[in-house]
Amino acid sequence: MHLFIGTAEDCDKKGALEIVNQIKNKPDTVLGLATGSTPIGMYQNLVQFYRDGKVSFSQVRTFNLDEYVGIPREHPCSYYDFMQENLFKDIDIPADHISLPDGNAPDLKQECADYEERIAGSGGIDLQVLGIGHNGHIGFNEPGTPFESVTQLVNLTQSTIQANARFFENQDQVPRQALSMGIKTIMQAGKILLFAKGADKADIIQKALQGPITPEVPASVLQLHPNLYVFVDHAAAAKL
C-alpha cells in the first residue's frame, strides 16, 4: 500500500498526477471512475492538466462504478450527469468511450452481466478511482457484500440513502436501488486510487486500512490489493 497524507488539495493534485502518468504510459488506459463529493477536486485537476496540454483523453475508455436505478440520465442527480458536469464535458474523451451502468435498462440483471462483459472486452480496468462510505462501502457494495460479487443490482441501506439525500431535494427522492460494480470487479483493476477527506472518515479509514479484512467493512478487502494508492487528508488520517 502506498499512503499519501496531505491537505485535501494536495491529495487531489497528487491523485490526478497518478492518472496523468498512467495515461502517458498507456494512452488507451481504461479508467474506473467514482462519483460523490470526494473526487470532484481531483477531476478539476485533471481538467486543468488537459487544458494545459499535459494529457489527452482521446484514447481513454471509462467505466463508472455505479448508477442509480430509475432516474433519467439527464436528472441532475444521476451519475451520468455528474460525470458530464465534473469531467467529461471539459476534456477530449469521445462520447462512445464512456460507459456507465444503465439504471433504466428493461432487464437490470442482464444489464449487469452486459456491463461485466463490456469491462472484460475492453481488456479490464487499468486504474480504478474509489471513495469510501462511512460504513466502509466502495461503489454501492454495502456491509455484508461477498468479496466475490460482480456487477449487480443492490438495495441501498438507510445510512447510504441518508448520506446521499444532500444531493436531492429530500430523502424521499433518493432512489432505493442502484447498479454497482462488485467487489471482485473492483479488485481486478490493475491499480486502485482510494480517496478520503474529513474527520468524519477517520474511523472508517482506520478500520479499512488497519482493521480485520471482513465483508462487514467492504473496503477492508483493499488491503489485499497489490497496487493500492491511498490519498487521505490530515483529518481523515487522524486515527492511522
According to CATH, what is the class?
Alpha Beta
Quote the average pLDDT. Answer: 96
* Overall number of domains: 1
Write down how many β-strands occur, each being a DSSP E stretch of 2 or more residues. 10
Taking the alpha carbons of the first and last residues, their distance comes to: 13 Å
CATH fold node name:
Rossmann fold
CATH architectural arrangement: 3-Layer(aba) Sandwich
H/E element order: EHEHEEHEHEEHEHEHE
Low-confidence stretches: none
What general outline do the C-alpha atoms trace?
globular
- How would you characterize the largest beta sheet? 7 strands, parallel
Q: Looking across the biggest beta sheet, what order are the strands in?
A: 1-10-9-6-2-3-5
Give the helix/strand class. alpha/beta
What would you note in describing this structure?
The protein has seven helices and ten strands. The protein has 240 residues and is α/β, with parallel strands linked by helices. Strands 1-10-9-6-2-3-5 form a seven-stranded parallel sheet, with helices on one face. Strand 2 (30-33), helix 2 (40-51) and strand 3 form a beta-alpha-beta unit. The longest helix has 18 residues, at 8-25.
